[in-house]
Design a protein that fits this description.
By secondary structure, this protein is mainly alpha-helical. The protein has 18 helices and 5 strands. Helix content is 65%, strand content 4%. Strands 1-4-5 form a 3-stranded mixed sheet. Strand 4 and strand 5 form a beta hairpin. The termini are far apart.
């Protein structure tokens, strides 16, 4: 997709992203695709239907990306955020994932679910979005009149030294192969892993009979592939060659920009990418605070808007739209704390249940797998603790915590403090 000028190319990128997000928002609302709900169903009821839908989305995204990348149609090596960066930030993925998992449980859903709820009339989720957005914005952008961010003040000095250098890239293909063999290794690993996940997902007869779970998983996975394809292939053509949008702005703007072209405030969000929702919430807050400055429009902002509108459209069509407010102060406090944890955790882990759990894993990045496991662990542990404290009203937090870890086989049975339920 080569355009004659930057303005046309950027406009296509933004509106194509919006269109894909619109479809995803409507389908996620209709099918009740929910990653936090997937963990809840599994932990509390032993129902793996929605967890399999999440795994289906991962398999579809992974298969699509590795195949398209082998054909030169996806540029995951230069992605935004840099999933495959050689610096393996294991502690940030681990801590961020756990914080995000706890947060999404307290706030009744992940970043994507927050947007879906807003489209359905949930005012609580508007507060969650704003809190996440402000924290995410200042985690990566300096405070006014300063060169310090929340990340540099709270985390950088102690957590960044824990990182491990993995070489040129941390994806599984690069870790087991080198040179020209990397591309082949990525394709083989991706296809084998995706097929194994698909086999597990469709092994369940109950899952095969639930069309909502199947459609939800396929559409979310396909949307992620679509985001990668669009952002990797929108280019600006010159007389001599064509340039990706990020390279055009960063290196060719002064020479080839047209009179009507408006230079973006930052070229990095023009790199190849796909759907993620925590940093884009920060971008959206920054966009609004800047008076809706067109130079700050990004893939992420259009994704946020598209998902909300898609959910709204389905809510109206299905007559499911209804305003919802906090049931109690405790409900407010849970959502507030959950939003704070998701803001910090989502940026630290470089993504959410979709951004890392689907989009990141589709690149085979090691950090994405760590984040996925950490999010599921944080969410599951939070649910178990809450359940034990609800059943045993006099139980302390530490008793519920230790018992939950025993249930998850992370502590020996001798350390159980409460009877299993």
């Amino acid at each position: 997709m080569i355009f004659e000028n930057f303005g046309e190319a950027q406009s296509f990128l933004l509106w194509a992203t919006f269109a894909v997000a619109l479809i995803m928002g409507a389908v996620v609302n209709k099918t009740n695709f929910c990653t936090m709900g997937a963990v809840s169903d599994w932990v509390n009821m032993g129902d793996t239907g929605r967890m399999r839908a999440w795994l289906l989305a991962i398999a579809v995204a992974l298969l699509g990306v590795v195949v398209l990348e082998s054909m030169g149609l996806v540029q995951a090596d230069s992605a935004f955020p840099p999933y495959r960066a050689g610096q393996f930030l294991w502690a940030e993925h681990l801590l961020g994932g756990v914080l995000f998992g706890i947060g999404m449980t307290l706030a009744s859903g992940c970043g994507n679910k927050c947007l879906i709820r807003i489209g359905g009339g949930n005012i609580k989720s508007v507060m969650v979005l704003l809190i996440i957005g402000v924290i995410a914005y200042f985690m990566v952008n300096p405070f006014p009149g300063s060169d310090q961010t929340l990340f540099t003040v709270l985390f950088y000095d102690w957590i960044r030294p824990l990182s491990v250098q993995m070489g040129a890239s941390q994806d599984l293909g690069s870790l087991i192969a080198s040179g020209e063999s990397v591309a082949t290794a990525r394709l083989i690993i991706g296809v084998v892993l995706a097929l194994a996940v698909l086999a597990f997902v469709f092994k369940s007869a109950e899952f095969r009979g639930n069309m909502n779970n199947i459609v939800g998983g396929i559409v979310v996975g396909a949307a992620v592939v679509g985001g990668w394809y669009i952002s990797s292939n929108v280019m600006v053509g010159t007389e001599d060659e064509s340039f990706g949008l990020q390279n055009f702005v960063a290196e060719q703007w002064d020479m080839y920009a047209g009179e009507g072209d408006v230079k973006p405030a930052d070229s990095r969000p023009l790199s190849a990418q796909s759907f993620t929702f925590i940093n884009p919430m920060g971008q959206t807050v920054g966009y609004g605070a800047a008076g809706f400055d067109a130079t700050m429009l990004t893939f992420g902002i259009m994704a946020v808007a598209g998902v909300i509108l898609g959910s709204l459209i389905w809510s109206v069509i299905s007559r499911g739209f209804r305003f919802e407010w906090f049931a109690s102060f405790k409900d407010f406090l849970n959502h507030f704390i959950g939003a704070v944890l998701m803001g910090f955790g989502g940026v630290l882990a470089m993504g959410c249940t979709i951004g890392q759990g689907v989009t990141g894993i589709s690149t085979l990045a090691l950090g994405s797998f760590v984040t996925f496991v950490a999010i599921v662990f944080g969410s599951a542990l939070t649910m178990k603790i809450a359940y034990y404290r609800m059943v045993y009203e006099d139980a302390s937090f530490m008793q519920a915590f230790a018992t939950s870890l025993v249930d998850m086989r992370l502590l020996p049975g001798s350390m159980r403090k409460l009877e299993a339920i």
